[in-house]
Structures are given as C-alpha cells and as structure tokens.
Specification:
The protein is α+β, with helices and mostly antiparallel strands. Among the domains are: 86-163, Dna Ligase, domain 1, CATH 3.30.1490.110; 201-355, Nucleotidyltransferase, domain 5; 427-456. Helix content is 37%, strand content 27%. The chain contains eleven helices and 20 strands. The strands form six sheets. Strands 3-2-1-7-12 form a five-stranded mixed sheet, with helices on both faces. The chain has a five-stranded mixed sheet with strand order 15-14-13-18-19, with helices on both faces. A hairpin with a 5-residue loop joins strand 2 and strand 3. The radius of gyration is 30 Å and the shape is globular. InterPro entries: ATPase_NBD, Cell_div_FtsA, FtsA/MreB, SHS2_FtsA. Keywords: Cell cycle, Cell division, Cell membrane, Membrane.
Length: 456
C-alpha cells in the first residue's frame, strides 16, 4: 500500500497560530484532516519577541490539530513574515561547458545555487531565490529553458531576504516544541498559492494579505512573481486606535471592530449607538458607530496607501506592467465590512476578497475557507509539493509491548548456606559503595583543586 503524503503547515501570526494537517484527495484537491488554533503570545509584527510564550502557543495549536485529525505531527512548513523582509531583483548567468548538450534541471539549480551565494548585508539571509525570465545566448523572454541548447544561460531573479536572527528564532521555537522544520515559505507567497488562480497570475494581480501585525503584498504578472513586500501594520493598529479613541479595553475594541466595524463611515447614521459595559461597577459607555467607522477608516486608508505605494514602486502605471486582474484582499483584515469598496475607491483597481477555496475539497468545513486561513492552506499546499511525510496516523505508531508475566521459580537452599551468601553479599556491597564514594570524593577534590589552581 502506497504511503499517504500527509502535509502540515504552521502559520505563526501576530494574533493567532494555526497548525493545519491536509492531503490531496483523488481529484487533486486539498482535503483538510485537522486544524489547531491558539492565541499567539510572544509574536509582534510577525517577529518572535518571546520564545517561551511562542513555544507554548505552538504546542497548543499542534496538540489541537493532532487531536482533531488522529495524526501525530513530525515536521512542518512554516510561514515567515515581519518588517525585516525585503526583496531585490538580481540577474546572474552561467557559461555551460558543452553548448551541444540540452539544458537540464541541474543547470538551473547551478544558477540558483550561485545566486544563493550572493553577499548580503550583515545579519541577513536569503530565504527564496525565485527565477523569472531566462535568456539563452542573448535570446530573451524564455520561460522554460529546459530542453533547449545554448552556451550562456542567464536569468533574472526575485530574491527574498530576511534577518537571520528572526529566522533562527522561529526555527528554535519549532524545535523546542518537539517537531522538525521541513521548510520556510514567505507568507504572501503561501497566501497567493491558496487564493489566486493561474489566470489572475497571468493577467497581473496584487495580493494583499491583511493580518494582525503585518500586511503582506505579492505581485504577479505573466504567471511570474514580480514583487513582494511586508508592511508592519495590520488589524492590530486598528484595534489600538479604537481602544485609545473610545477609552475602552482591547478585548472590547476587538469585538467592536469585528461586530460593528466598517471601513466606510458614510453608511452609519448619527443615531446608531452601541452600549459597552463599564469596568467594575462603572457606568456603561455609549459609542457612536459613525465615530467608530471614522477611526477604522482613517487607519485602513493609511494601510492601503502604504501598500499602493509598493504597487506603484513595482511600476503598475507602465502599460506593459499593468495589473489587469487588479487586487485580491485576503487575511483576517479582509473580513472588515466595506473594505473592498474602500480599496477600489483609493486605488481605482478592480478588487475581490480572496477565499482559499480555490484548491480545497468540496466537503471542506466552511470556517477553513475563510480568508483568515489563507496562509495556513497555502503552507499545507507548499508542504504537499515538498512530498514530505509530515504526519503519521496515531494508530500506526507502535505502542511499547507490555512485559510478559512469568511465575517465579522456587529453589530450596539450606539455611546455613543462605546466611553465608547474605554475609558475602553485604561485604561486597559495602566495598563497592565505599569504592564509588571514594572515587566520587577523589574526583570532587580534584575538581576543587583544579578550580583553585586556575583561580590563582
């Protein structure tokens, strides 16, 4: 029987940590076997700032996913984001020894390995090297060079770079949680895999993933990744503003945003008011929904402006680089009422909300196809591509065998022989104990001597 290719994705976000276990069904769609979710403690703006709390949150999410699915997780593909991420465009080439031989996968790998050796700023590390168009002996705009002839193979690359310490901290949290790290993926790339269609990537599209601590951007054109960016603002700054502006606690601010929040202030009437219980015997607070929408609107406009600056930096205004499919919004922030209309108004580009149901099996839980889980679904898809066996069935794990009980054998021994044996054994034990104690004491004294000698 063929082994199941079970894949696991772990999305370490600022507000939540999601562990997702999945596999491909017979129709090539993604079947989700189990999901675990925990509140993310110890992550700020996509970067780990408290190792212990992050480990606890990861373990909680992993445990829940295992209990839901009946699988034991061995390793995970993890998403990486944070304000330390930057991307660069780079062109490199190799000269082939034998131009009469066809170009193979090993030639492209050689070129990618060469780019991986690029000198970065101190403390930075390359996360992804993504080939774009190829050039063979001066012939440009080649998308698939394998099988062609040529001496000089050249390519433009999209190189994603991040802080080495941040990446190592994520790795440390995962290993300390008792699992292995099988791969790292930039979160906007994972979200793009989950919510974008191939047609959109061909036509040109900007994916905006609005998370709790960061807003991630990935731009595609002609089916190729063209630009990535991580903006250090997300849904949390909106919650903070509501908290400050309405003088309420964070929990209430989050609930207000989710239940009554809107990115378009014009739609609320002046007399729409929500009452919030006061703290510890204080009077309840009355908050106007129009004011609430104004606070949310101001912050969302700021986030969208930052993202649109990145889209313009890519060159969207150039007719050849035009993003025909417009913008796709995903992540928890995409669930905010009227955000689609606001984005269209600010950017003038067609906008839709991206749900990760493009690749999910038909019988998937409705909650999983929420924009909230886009990154986690993308990470599972990434893990499937790696052909990793990331989890095994609980019932397939061998349980330790119970010891077999054997009845004791009774042998009769004369009494005087027993006394002699006991005496000899006691003497032996005493001498052994003395010897162990003496050896330990000698070693201990030697250690103190060494310490004192060195101290001098």
């Amino acid at each position: 029987m063929e082994k199941e290719n079970i894949a696991v994705g772990l999305d370490i976000g600022t507000t939540k940590i999601v562990a997702m276990i999945g596999k491909k069904n017979e129709y090539g769609k993604l079947e989700i076997l189990g999901v675990g979710k925990s509140k993310s403690l110890g992550v700020a703006r996509g970067v780990v700032n408290n190792i212990t709390q992050t480990i606890q949150s990861i373990q909680q999410a992993i445990q829940e996913a295992e209990n839901n699915s009946g699988y034991k997780i061995k390793d995970v593909v993890v998403g990486i984001a944070g304000q330390h991420i930057r991307s660069i465009q780079h062109t490199d080439y190799i000269s082939r020894n034998n131009p009469e031989e066809v170009i193979g996968g090993n030639d492209i790998q050689l070129l990618i390995d060469q780019v991986n050796k690029l000198a970065m700023l101190p403390g930075e590390e390359i996360i992804h090297v993504l080939p774009q168009e190829f050039k063979i002996d001066g012939q440009s705009e080649i998308k698939e060079p394998i099988g062609m002839y040529g001496g000089r193979l050249e390519s433009s690359f999209h190189v994603v770079v991040g802080q080495a310490s941040s990446i190592r901290n994520v790795g440390r949290c995962i290993q300390s949680s008792g699992i292995e790290l099988s791969g790292l993926t930039l979160e906007p790339l994972a979200s793009a895999d989950a919510v974008l269609s191939q047609e959109e990537k061909e036509a040109g599209v900007a994916l905006i993933d609005i998370g709790g601590g960061t807003t991630d951007l990935a731009i595609f054109k002609d089916g190729i990744i063209r630009h990535t960016a991580v903006i250090p603002f997300g849904g949390n700054v909106i919650t903070d503003d509501i908290k400050e502006g309405c003088s309420i606690i964070e929990k209430q601010a989050e609930l207000l945003k989710v239940k009554f929040g809107s990115a378009w202030p014009g739609e609320n009437k002046d007399n729409e008011i929500v009452s919030i219980p006061g703290l510890r015997g204080r009077e309840p607070k009355e908050i106007s929904l129009k004011n609430l929408s104004k606070i949310i609107h101001a912050r969302v406009v700021e986030i969208i402006d930052q993202v649109f600056t990145e889209v313009k930096a890519y060159g969207h205004e150039d007719p050849r680089k035009k993003l025909i499919a417009g913008i796709v919004l995903t992540g928890g922030g995409a669930q905010l009422k009227h955000i689609k209309q606001l984005v269209e108004y600010i950017t003038g580009m067609d906008t839709r909300i991206g749900y990760p149901n493009e690749h999910l099996a038909g019988n998937s839980d409705e909650e999983i196809s929420s924009p909230l889980y886009a990154t986690a679904v993308g990470l599972v898809m990434n893990s499937i591509e790696n052909k990793t066996q990331s989890a095994v069935r609980m019932d397939a794990i061998e349980q330790p065998k119970a010891p077999v009980y054997r009845a004791p054998v009774v042998i009769e021994v004369p009494e005087n022989e027993v006394e002699e044996e006991v005496r000899n054994t006691n003497e032996k034990q005493n001498s052994t104990v003395n010897r162990i104690q003496r050896n330990f004491f000698d070693r201990y004294v030697d250690k103190i001597k060494d310490f004192l000698d060195n101290a001098e």
